[in-house]
Amino acid sequence: MSEKENSPRSPTRTIAVLLRELLPEDLEALIALDQLHVAMGEQGSGDTKRWRKALTRFLSQGHEDEGRVALGAETEEGLVGYLLGEVRAFEFGSEPCGWVFSVGVHPHLQKSGIATSLMREACRRFSKAGVSTVRTMVRRNQIPVLRFFRANDFTGGRFVQLEKKLENGNRGEQR
Ligand SMILES: CC(C)(COP(=O)(O)OP(=O)(O)OC[C@H]1O[C@@H](n2cnc3c(N)ncnc32)[C@H](O)[C@@H]1OP(=O)(O)O)[C@@H](O)C(=O)NCCC(=O)NCCS
Predict the structure, then answer these.
(1) 33 C-beta closer than 6 A to ligand 1
(2) For 12-16, which contacts have Cβ atoms below 8 Å and span 24 or more sequence positions?
(3) Is residue 145 within 6 Å of ligand 1 at its C-beta?
(4) Region 35-51 average pLDDT
(5) Cα 129 to averaged position of ligand 1 atoms, centre (Å)
(6) Atom of ligand 1 lying closest to residue 102 CA
(7) Model pTM?
(8) CATH of domain 18-151
(9) In the chain, where are the structural domains located?
(10) Which of 51, 74, 159, 162 might form a disulfide with 45, Cβ 3.0–4.6 angstroms?
């Protein structure tokens, strides 16, 4: 039985992609994908300079650490998707868990199961690294993104995020 027939939540069409480690050389392709998302009104970094800095640091750390996940999805056209995550310990008094920081797929290839493939591989790696929970944060008005995580078995967690606005603290954060 194929994976699609086996799972009630499999996407409607599937595209063959190669999943591979992201390398420092992927930086520009990742930034281009992020800019496409921003241009299409999807959730992106919103700040290329900050995203470039964070990505450069993340990609330069290598792949020896089992708790770090920097995955790319590639077709003949090049890099079409990515997922970045990391096992973090003792955050907010919680047990170590995997965090998915960012996941994105080229707009023309969305709804083809690419992010689901990336998520499955990330969860396999987090599990291998010894954690039993994976977490993420999503803007509450990003319904398609919430749906994606829900389709991948994410549910409301045990923590609630709280925040306070500081006077003169507006640094262009998206709502
Ligand atoms: C969210 C995102 C990563 C999903 O990638 P994707 O490859 O299209 O996701 P999949 O094809 O694996 O989708 C799996 C399931 O998630 C749900 N889903 C995905 N995109 C959806 C959308 N736009 N609307 C509603 N449900 C959606 C569906 O249930 C889908 O299954 P189906 O196709 O059988 O209906 C992609 O839309 C994206 O790159 N968005 C812009 C960047 C972003 O916002 N990233 C998340 C925050 S970092």
Answers:
(1) no
(2) 12/111, 13/111, 13/112, 13/113, 14/112, 14/113, 15/75, 15/109, 15/112, 15/113, 15/114, 16/75
(3) yes
(4) 81
(5) 26
(6) 48
(7) 0.89
(8) 3.40.630.30
(9) 18-151
(10) 51
